[in-house]
Specification:
CATH class: Alpha Beta
Largest sheet: 9 strands, mixed
Number of strands: 11
Number of domains: 1
Radius of gyration: 22 Å
Strand order of the largest sheet: 9-8-7-10-6-1-4-5-11
CATH architecture: 3-Layer(aba) Sandwich
Shape: globular
CATH superfamily: HUPs
Order of helices and strands: EEEHEHEHEHEEEEHEHH
Distance between the termini: 60 Å
């Protein structure tokens, strides 16, 4: 099975204090530490495990500039056999649909059986996986936390749904799946693995190599535009109830009655 995993280079929230620019056009990106999107890391691990069980190859692809190569190499050091850079000045400023158009061209060029994405990316929108599936006219499932390969080009998948419940389904290949964290435990990437892939050539494909019309991607083709970034004003803090357990319980009952929670 040939698997493509879409990965993204994002600011590492554990290593950065994210601040908004005074003009509200973006976050401050000077001196930010970047890493692979957390959800994408689980998707790569799941792809590697599937390939180890059933055979096949794992390719990681990202849409970005030259700086994004570091996350591709990191995932190759993790165990992916191939990397792919989708980079072109025409891609800059693409919205979710534009990114999906670029990935669609890469999928059709590579003839993949399965495409995995992280459940959350795209500045938290989590939209590219579904858009990519729609453009490819492939089956799609989101929030996948279990994958079992069946006979006859089918998968059995588990999805996390409301109320902490689990939904089991069968889906035909080829398909696109958005992977939820917790599906596995991503393996450790050591120095040896990083050195092993340090000199591996990673193909870089632009619009012409992908056979993609530049007018369908980039800032000019955006149908969704970000208008403002801001930090919401701080609300009132929590009220800490003091006293004995009996006094706290009585006070809590009074508050619930006052707010309509009890009659």
């Amino acid at each position: 099975m040939n698997i493509l995993v879409c990965v993204k280079r994002v600011p590492d929230t554990a290593e950065n204090e994210i601040e908004v620019r005074p003009d509200g056009t973006d976050i401050r990106r000077e001196d930010l530490v970047y890493s692979v999107n957390e959800w994408d890391n689980y998707a790569v691990e799941e792809a590697i495990q599937i390939a180890e069980r059933t055979g096949g190859t794992v390719t990681v692809a990202t849409v970005g500039d030259a700086d994004a190569e570091e996350v591709v190499r990191r995932e190759m050091a993790m165990g992916a056999q191939q990397g792919l850079m989708l980079t072109d000045p025409a891609f800059e400023g693409s919205d979710g649909r534009g990114i999906a158009e670029i990935l669609k061209a890469a999928v059709q060029r590579g003839r993949y059986d399965l495409v995995l994405c992280g459940a959350q990316a795209d500045d938290g929108a989590g939209q590219v996986g579904g858009m990519l599936a729609a453009l490819l006219d492939w089956p799609y499932a989101s929030l996948v936390n279990r994958i079992e390969v069946l006979e006859g080009q089918r998968l059995r998948i588990g999805r996390e749904i409301e109320g902490g419940n689990q939904e089991m389904s069968e889906i035909e290949l080829p398909c696109v799946l958005s992977i939820q964290t917790g599906i596995n435990e991503p393996r450790y990437v050591g120095i040896r693995g990083i050195r092993k892939v340090a000199s591996v050539e990673i193909p870089a494909l632009g619009a012409s190599e992908l056979g993609l019309d530049p007018s369908r991607v980039g800032r000019a083709a955006c149908r969704v535009r970000k208008l403002d970034y801001f930090v919401p004003p701080a609300g009132a803090g929590a009220e800490i109830l003091q006293g004995s357990p009996e006094e706290i319980a009585a006070r809590l009952v009074d508050l619930l009655k006052a707010k309509g929670g009890l009659k």
